[in-house]
Amino acid sequence: MKLYIKANNLKILKNLDDLLPSSLSKASLLIDANSLIEYQTNLNCANEILKYQEELFFDKRDIKNIIKGIYFGNSSCEHLIPSFTDILEAKKICDSRHYNFVFSLPPISEFKLNDIKEVFELLNQSYTEVVVNDFGTLQLASEYKNLKPVLGLTFSKVIKSAFIDSIKPSDLTNEQLVSQSELLSQSEFECSQTREFYKSLGVGRFSIENINLNLEFLQEKPKLQVDFYYPNITIANSKACDIAGLFEDKNRYFVQEQCNKYCNQISLEFEHSKVLGLYQRFNSIYKINTNINVKENLSKDIKNRFIWEIFI
After folding, report:
1. What angle is formed at CA 190 by the lines to CA 209 and CA 143, rounded to 5 degrees?
2. Which of 22, 231, 281, 289 is at 20 to 30 A from 47, Cα to Cα?
């Protein structure tokens, strides 16, 4: 696998050196149980990546020297898409460090379609991979010669549980537990017709999260490469959004169209929940899984990517 960093905004990219393991090891002295969950998670992830570095990336060098590229952009809300200025600055930083630049998009509504067309015109000036999270944007990206669409996480329709890792059901038999585990490990990409359909649309890569999925099909044709996102597992989108909760269904419009981006200013940990590791960031709710359990057939393919998403 190759290591990529997911940076939701320019601030992460500018401070990347201070967020990598060599700097975090020093910062660990300042991080305790009362620190923000993002910083605790970044530190735990760094230690876990260092632990399995050779197995994942077959490279002993410092983490900063084996980063292949940057996934830049917010994947959860169209109101948090980086500005033209930020995109250009991010590309400039990536060029100076010889990083591949991949642009990430959230699901896009008709309200933002014209803005996305302008972004695509900018990105189309050179070969650029674009992570898309809806069929409309996938279709739009395919109309640009130099844009290569990548299927984002919304295309991976898998059943996820927010609780099963933390609370084992006590009222189920062993047979029922096995059946439940099998159900949670299934993906639509196991179906060859699904992979063939996306290949016909010019797609060569899809995304999964750090959950226990059956990936025995990865070497089968038609073949798609994998983006493995770590450590955040999306439990719900838009549940922490003021605008999404103010939709007037009768007349089909949003009462408040201008977003003040409050979700970009706060984060919320479900501190007293029995289910550990749930927290809100941006407009979404995530579950953290810092334990790396990458299957061998995934890690040995150098075209697959390990995408470490860092929050600050």
Report:
1. 75
2. 281
44, 311 contact by CB (below 8 A): no
Q: For residue 135, give its domain range.
A: 2-235+292-310
265: which 2 tokens? 């200013």
Residue 240, SS3? coil
Prior bond of 82 cis (ω within 30°)? no
CB environment 243-277: b (16+ within 10 A), e (fewer): beeeeeeeeeeeeeeebeeebbeebebeeeeeeeb
Q: In which band, very low, low, confident or very high, does the pLDDT at 91 lie, cut at 50, 70 and 90?
A: very high
How many CA atoms are closer than 13 Å to the CA of 53, on its beta-carbon side? 16
Domain count, the chain: 1
pLDDT at 137: 95
Contacts of 250 (CB under 8 A, 6+ apart): none
Read off the tokens for 220. Answer: 């089968």
Q: How many angstroms separate the CA atoms of 24 and 18, rounded? A: 7
Q: What does 22-41 look like in DSSP terms, one character per residue?
A: HHHHHHGGG--TTS-HHHHH
Within a domain: 240: no
Residue 110 pLDDT greater than 70, yes or no: yes
Rounded (5°) CA angle 51-49-91: 155
Extract the tokens encoding 247: 């939709």
In a domain, 131, yes or no: yes
Residue 191 domain flag? yes
pLDDT in tens, 206-227: 999 988 888 888 889 999 999 9
Q: What is the CATH number of the domain that holds 132?
A: 3.20.20
Which residues have C-beta within 8 Å of that of residue 282, sequence separation ≥ 6?
8, 74, 76, 77, 80, 240, 263, 264
Residue 235 CB contacts under 8 Å (≥ 6 apart), including other chains: 160, 162, 278, 284, 285, 286, 287
Main-chain phi, psi angles of 276, to 5 degrees = -75, 150
